[in-house]
Write a structure and sequence with these properties.
With 402 residues, this protein is α/β, with parallel strands linked by helices. It has ten helices and 17 strands.
Length: 402
C-alpha cells in the first residue's frame, strides 16, 4: 500500500520522453513544496543494457523489460506512459485494471477508437464520485508560465469576446536524410505532424480560449518524402538524434504537414498549421488570439514571453507589449524557480506538471486545469475531424466524430 506522503512512479519508455519525465520527477521536489514525494521506482524499456545505465543516470531504483509485470506490481502507485502512441491503450488499460493512477504522453492514442476506449476506461476507474483513480495527459505547454498567464487573462476578460485564433507548430528536423523512425509509421504513430504537433496546438488553444472546436474544414495533409531509409539502431535521446540508416528503404505512411480551418464554440474562426519540414523553424509552437478588447501572442521559441495588446488603451499608445513571465507571485509557477528574467526552459513545463499531478493526487487544485483522458479525447476528436476533412474535402462537424 502506498505511503500517504510518497508516490511510487513507474515510467514506461526511456527515450526522448523518458528523459523529460525522469528529469521532472527527480527535480520537482527540489523546487516545489510537495504534498507527497515522488519515488522513482521502476524504469521500463526494451533494452536491458541501456536501461541499467539509464536507471543509474536518472536515479530509478529498478529497471525492467517487462511492462506488464511493472504495471501489475503492488509497489507502484502511478504508471507514467512515454512510449510510441500505439502502446498507449494496452498500457493504460493494464495500469487502470491494476488500480494505478496513469499519466500518458500526448496524443492520447494513435487512433480515435483507442482514445475513445481509454477515455471510457478512465471514467470507469474514476468512479461516480471522482475519488478513484486519476488520469493525466502530458500536454506540457499548458504549464509554461506565459501560456498559463494567457489562460488567466482570457478568463478575466482582458481580451473580450474572441474573434480569431491562429495556431502553428512548425519544425524542420524531418529532412530527407532522417531515416524511417517510428514517427513515420502509421501503425505506431497513428499520424504524422497531425498527431505529433497539431495535437499540442489544438489542446493549447482549447485551454487558453476555454472553448471547444465545433467544426473543421479546408483541411490539407501532405507527405513530401514518400520513402525513407530504414533505421538501424535507436535514437541518441532526441527526436531523431543519432539515428543511423541502412541501405534498405521503406514507405512513409503518415503526413509531413497538415493545415486546416476550424470554428470555435464562441464563434471565433481559426487556422491551424503543423509541419515537420518547415525550414528555419526548430520548434515554433504558438498562437495569436484576437479579441474585441485585446489580443495575445505566444511562440515557444521565446517561451518566457507573452505578447499582449490592449485595445482599450487610448489609440495613441496602443501597441504590443512583451511581458516577461518570470515574476514570482504574478506569473504562474514562476515563484518556484529563479529571480526575475532568470529564464526557464523546455524541461520546466514537465516539472511544473509533475507538481500539479502531485497536488491533484493529494486532493488539491492544480495551478491551471490539467487534461485528463476525457479532456485529451476531445483534442483527439478534433484531430480525427481534420483527417476526415482532408480525405473527403468537406466540412466535418465535431458532432459527427463520436
Amino acid at each position: 500500500m502506498s505511503h500517504p506522503n510518497r508516490l511510487r512512479v513507474a515510467l514506461l519508455g526511456q527515450a526522448f520522453m523518458g528523459r523529460a519525465h525522469s528529469n521532472a520527477w527527480s527535480q520537482v521536489g527540489k523546487f516545489f513544496d510537495l504534498p507527497a514525494v515522488p519515488v522513482l521506482h521502476t524504469i521500463c524499456g526494451r533494452d536491458a543494457a541501456k536501461l541499467r545505465a539509464f536507471a543509474a543516470r536518472w536515479g530509478w531504483r529498478y529497471f525492467s523489460t517487462d511492462w506488464r509485470a511493472v504495471v501489475a506490481c503492488d509497489d507502484i502507485d502511478l504508471v507514467d506512459i512515454g512510449t510510441p502512441n500505439h502502446l498507449h491503450l494496452p498500457m493504460a488499460k493494464a495500469a487502470l485494471a491494476a488500480g494505478k493512477h496513469v499519466a500518458c504522453e500526448k496524443p492520447l492514442a494513435g487512433t480515435l477508437a483507442d482514445a475513445r476506449e481509454m477515455a471510457h476506461l478512465a471514467a470507469e476507474a474514476k468512479g461516480g464520485t471522482g475519488a478513484g483513480q486519476k488520469t493525466f495527459v502530458w500536454y506540457n505547454y499548458r504549464r509554461c508560465p506565459a501560456v498559463a498567464l494567457a489562460y488567466s487573462l482570457v478568463r478575466t476578460g482582458k481580451i473580450g469576446p474572441i474573434r480569431h485564433v491562429r495556431a502553428f507548430y512548425l519544425q524542420d528536423w524531418a529532412g530527407p536524410d532522417v531515416p524511417l523512425a517510428w514517427r513515420f509509421d502509421r501503425r505506431q504513430a497513428g499520424s504524422g505532424a497531425l498527431g505529433d504537433l497539431a495535437a499540442h496546438i489544438v489542446d493549447m488553444t482549447r485551454f487558453v480560449t476555454g472553448q471547444e472546436i465545433t467544426a473543421v474544414c479546408g483541411a490539407m495533409a501532405e507527405t513530401f518524402i514518400k520513402r525513407r531509409r530504414v533505421m538501424s539502431g535507436s535514437a541518441a535521446g532526441g527526436i531523431a538524434a543519432g539515428l543511423k540508416r541502412s541501405a534498405k528503404t521503406g514507405k512513409v505512411t503518415v503526413d509531413d504537414a497538415v493545415a486546416f480551418l476550424a470554428r470555435f464554440s464562441g464563434g471565433a474562426m481559426a487556422t491551424f498549421e503543423a509541419a515537420r519540414q518547415a525550414t528555419g523553424n526548430q520548434n515554433r509552437n504558438g498562437f495569436e488570439i484576437n479579441g474585441v478588447k485585446g489580443a495575445l501572442r505566444f511562440n515557444f521559441e521565446r517561451m518566457n514571453e507573452l505578447e499582449y495588446y490592449d485595445a482599450t488603451a487610448p489609440r495613441a499608445v496602443q501597441g504590443w507589449t512583451t511581458i516577461l513571465c518570470t515574476h514570482g507571485g504574478d506569473h504562474p509557477y514562476a515563484a518556484a524557480w529563479w529571480p526575475d528574467a532568470h529564464i526557464i526552459g523546455y524541461e520546466h513545463g514537465f516539472t511544473n506538471m509533475a507538481y500539479d499531478i502531485l497536488r491533484m493526487l493529494a486532493g488539491k487544485a492544480p495551478t491551471v486545469p490539467m487534461p485528463d483522458f476525457a479532456d485529451a479525447y476531445q483534442t483527439q476528436r478534433v484531430l480525427e475531424a481534420a483527417a476526415v476533412a482532408a480525405a473527403e474535402k468537406r466540412w466535418v462537424k465535431l458532432s459527427e466524430v463520436k
